[in-house]
Amino acid sequence: MAKISVIGSGSWGTALAWLLGNNGHQVTLWSYLQEETAMFCEHHQNTDKLSGVILRDDVIYTCNLEEACKGREMLVLAVPSPVVRSTSAKMAPYVEDGCLIVSVAKGIEDETLKTMSDIVEENIPQANVAVLSGPSHAEEVGKGLPTAIVAAAHNRETAERVQAYFMSPVFRVYTSSDLRGVQLGAALKNVIALAAGMADGLGYGDNAKAALITRGSAEISRLGNAMGVHLRTLYGLSGIGDLIVTCASRHSRNRKAGYLMGQGMSMDDAMTEVHQIVEGVFSAKAGKLLADTYGVEMPIVQAINQVLFENKSAAAAVVELMTRDGKDELEDWK
């Protein structure tokens, strides 16, 4: 049994606390809100964001970050990507040398173009940092439905530690050395999911969604190739796997936000309606900046940025995508 704290008590953090507790570990769940901690103490569940997923009686709840961080073998950083920097900076004084920190947020910081693991390593250099990513909606993990995911780290020993902590009969964990590739796929699939949701909101069919998923995967792969990541990663669980589930699932907050915008709602109103942070909105900026930096053509990512930040309608963006000059799919003509 390991002493583990989950830093962040949203739907994903709650689901992982449930999983780790059921794996026999001593789990502490941290929230930055006193009233949320009180809710967990009374109900042993997140009644707002993941109702019905009941945590074990021995889970400890706290809003004291020092208490959550000290003396732990592993810290699971489960706050949304826009607050990973601020939260990890606050954690730093309390993290012991060599402590394993597993980042599970999906995003790229648009100001710096750094991954979540880059930010954690910058703020907590004494930590041993890994990431966990893949097609894994909290609503299904919390019900014990079969899920497969990837643990990535700088070395095999660290990745296998993460694998051992999380593996269960309903939660299969693979390992990877491709930290950047795993995180690139995780962040940019949210942008494509916004596009898929917009297509649904506009009343388009399965053909349109299949095209967006396929061409979105091609855009992510082109960027990944330019950035030197393993293309097998982007064709794996944290790439195409996560892309499929996020574009198609009713649980996807990014798809839902896109759907609302496709129906005419503004970005701000859609984010309010979803009632959770829509990370694809933040990753869209980063995706465009990365495409510009590496000189990679990413028309879907470009179109989503225009809808989000330039007041272009989703319908107009689709027309522009469909009427672009004809292209070769494989770009291999001699």
Helix content: 40-55%
Shape: globular
Number of helices: 16
Query: Which strand order do you get reading across the main beta sheet?
Result: 3-2-1-4-5-6-7-8
Q: Proportion of β residues?
A: 5-15%
- C-alpha Rg (nearest Å): 20 Å
Average the pLDDT over all residues and give the rounded result.
94
What is the H/E string?
A: EHEHEHEHEHEHEHEHHHHHHHHH
Unreliable residue runs: none
Structural class: alpha/beta
N-end to C-end Cα span: 59 Å
Largest sheet: 8 strands, mixed
Count of distinct strands: 8
Give a description of the structure:
The longest helix is centred in the middle third of the chain and has 23 residues, at 179-201. The chain has helices at residues 11-22, 34-43, 65-69, 84-91, 116-123, 138-141, 156-166, 179-201, 206-227, 231-234, 237-248, 253-262, 267-274, 279-294, 299-309, 314-322; strands at 3-7, 26-30, 60-62, 74-77, 100-103, 128-133, 147-153, 171-176. The mean pLDDT is 94. The protein is 52% helix and 12% strand. It is globular. It has an eight-stranded mixed β-sheet with strand order 3-2-1-4-5-6-7-8, sandwiched between helices. The relative contact order is 0.11. It contains 16 helices and eight strands. With 334 residues, it is α/β, with parallel strands linked by helices. Helix 1 (11-22) links the parallel strand 1 (3-7) and strand 2 (26-30). The protein starts with a strand and ends in a 12-residue tail after the last helix.
